[in-house]
Design brief:
The chain has one domain (3-239). Helix 1 (3-17) packs across helix 9 (142-168), helix 1 runs parallel beside helix 12 (223-239) and helix 9 (142-168) runs antiparallel to helix 11 (197-218). It has helices at residues 3-17, 25-34, 38-47, 55-62, 67-80, 83-101, 108-120, 128-134, 142-168, 172-179, 197-218, 223-239. It has 244 residues and is mostly helical. The radius of gyration is 18 Å and the shape is globular. 70% of the residues lie in helices and 0% in strands. The chain starts with a helix and ends in a 5-residue tail after the last helix.
Length: 244
C-alpha cells in the first residue's frame, strides 16, 4: 500500500476513532470526577498534554475556535482542575471504549506498534499538540494501545493541518468559516467575515498541503505495515459502531 493510498483510506476513519471519546457519556463521568463540565473537559483534556501553559500558547496548538471562548474554557478549567490529570482522564475514556469494543479485532497490537513507529519518526517542529500526546505512555493492552495510537495519529494530522494553515496565512477564523459556515456560533464566533477570492484560494491549498506532509510521514513504515494498519483501522471503525 502506497503512502497516498494509506492516508486516503485511514484518515477519515482515524478522524472518528480518535475523537470518539470527546463527548461520550464516559467523558461526562470523567469530567464530573475532575469538577468540570464536558465542554471544558474537551478543551483541557486535549490541551492538557501541554501542561499549565498560558492561553496564547494553548491557542497556538489548538486552532479554529474563537480565542475568547478558548481563553474562558482554558482559564476556568485550570482554576478547577489539574489539566495534566484531565489529559490522562480523557485518554482513559478512549482506552475504556477500546477495551469494551475491540476485543475481537485482530492485529491491534501490530497496528499500534506500526503507528507508534511512524509517529516516532516525525519531526516535532511546529507540531506542539502532537508532541504533547507523543510524550504520553502507551498502555500495554492491545486494544488500549491501538486507541492511544489512533488518537496520536489524529493529532498528528490535526497539527500538520494547523502548520499548513499557518503557512497559507489564512488564519483559523477564515478557514473555519469556509469549512463549516453553519457552525460559527458553536465555535464561539458571533459574526461572519467578508471572505475574498484570495481567502478561498488559500483554503484550497490546505488539504493538499496536509496530505502531502502526511504522505511523507507514512514513508517511515513499510507498505506491508501501512496495509496492516489500514485493515485494523477499518475493523476497529466497524467494531466501534462508526460505519454509519
Amino acid at each position: 500500500m502506497t503512502p497516498e493510498e494509506f492516508n486516503a483510506a485511514t484518515a477519515p476513519q482515524l478522524q472518528k476513532i480518535g475523537a470518539i471519546h470527546y463527548f461520550h457519556p464516559y467523558a461526562k463521568e470523567a469530567a464530573e470526577g475532575l469538577g468540570i463540565d464536558g465542554f471544558r473537559f474537551y478543551f483541557c483534556g486535549r490541551a492538557g498534554v501541554l501542561g499549565e501553559v498560558s492561553t496564547d500558547v494553548m491557542l497556538s496548538a489548538f486552532g479554529y475556535f474563537e480565542p475568547g471562548l478558548v481563553d474562558k474554557m482554558w482559564t476556568t478549567s485550570k482554576e478547577r482542575c489539574n489539566v495534566v490529570d484531565a489529559a490522562q482522564a480523557q485518554m482513559g475514556v478512549s482506552y475504556r471504549l477500546g477495551a469494551e469494543a475491540l476485543g475481537d479485532v485482530d492485529g491491534l497490537a501490530e497496528a499500534a506498534a506500526s503507528m507508534g513507529e511512524l509517529a516516532a519518526q516525525v519531526d516535532r517542529s511546529a507540531l506542539p499538540l502532537f508532541a504533547g500526546f507523543l510524550a504520553l505512555d502507551v498502555p500495554d493492552s492491545p486494544a488500549e494501545a491501538f486507541m492511544h495510537q489512533a488518537v496520536l495519529m489524529r493529532e498528528l494530522r490535526g497539527s500538520v493541518h494547523l502548520a499548513a494553515l499557518a503557512a497559507t496565512g489564512l488564519g483559523s477564523r477564515a478557514a473555519h468559516q469556509i469549512k463549516r459556515p453553519n457552525d460559527l456560533e458553536m465555535f464561539g464566533y458571533k459574526e461572519s467575515l467578508k471572505l475574498t477570492d484570495s481567502d478561498h484560494a488559500a483554503y484550497e491549498l490546505l488539504e493538499p498541503m496536509t496530505d502531502s506532509a502526511m504522505n511523507l510521514h507514512a514513508e517511515a513504515i513499510t507498505a506491508d505495515q501501512r496495509a496492516q494498519i489500514a485493515t485494523a483501522v477499518a475493523a476497529a471503525h466497524t467494531a466501534l459502531g462508526l460505519d454509519g
